[in-house]
Specification:
43% helix, 15% strand, globular
Amino acid sequence: MVDRLKDKVAIITGGDTGIGKGIAKIFISEGAKVVIAARNEKMLQDTAKEIGGGNILAVRCDVKSAADVKNLINETVSRFSKLNILVNNAGKNPERKFTLEDTTEEEWDEYQAVNAKGSFLCSKYAIPEIRKAGGGSIIMIASISAHIGQENVGPYNSSKAAQEGLIRSMAMDFSRDKIRVNAISPGWVMVESMREAREKIMDYIKSLHPIGRIGYPEDIAWAAVYLASDESTWVTGATFAIDGGYLAK
């Protein structure tokens, strides 16, 4: 199938790299107009040029900032006249190992601000425009870490669990507006930051997934296409584990 997202307008936060970039490419191939948002202006513009064409717009945005998020929504509607889809993909991944006892208050606040508050702000200011468009889809890119116990990553795991709790409440609140809200929880996905990992570590990561390989951004992107399209009009409040079987173990 092609053009599954024809005439739809989507915002993808964290769209300059990794999973977000993969989603942007696939969305455009399916006929969507896409706005990618991130903090790194150069990476945003490079990604927009790489994808090319008139159906992509790059807007610098720090999702922790209400002013930035409002500007993102305004720029989107100014360029493409409407908004149908929001993909809350921007996130802060673990940068070091820490127990809760070792976690500073600043570190805790940063994980919650990017992963939880960022999703809240983007959703809050996108919903009125999605409602005006007659409904649409909000997709959280969460993590399998919201479902499992892991050592030394409590601030990250808790922020991802917050996203999944939020989608269920939002699904109840906005179903009457024909706004569907769902989450995708990826397993380990090959993104730029992992490409320099040692072969021994990569073999271990692959072994965590019964399918026997690490994921790719496209694996997540095709699930996002389904949730963004009219094929999923009876799906809301759900979490899809796209994880090579990780959670089935």
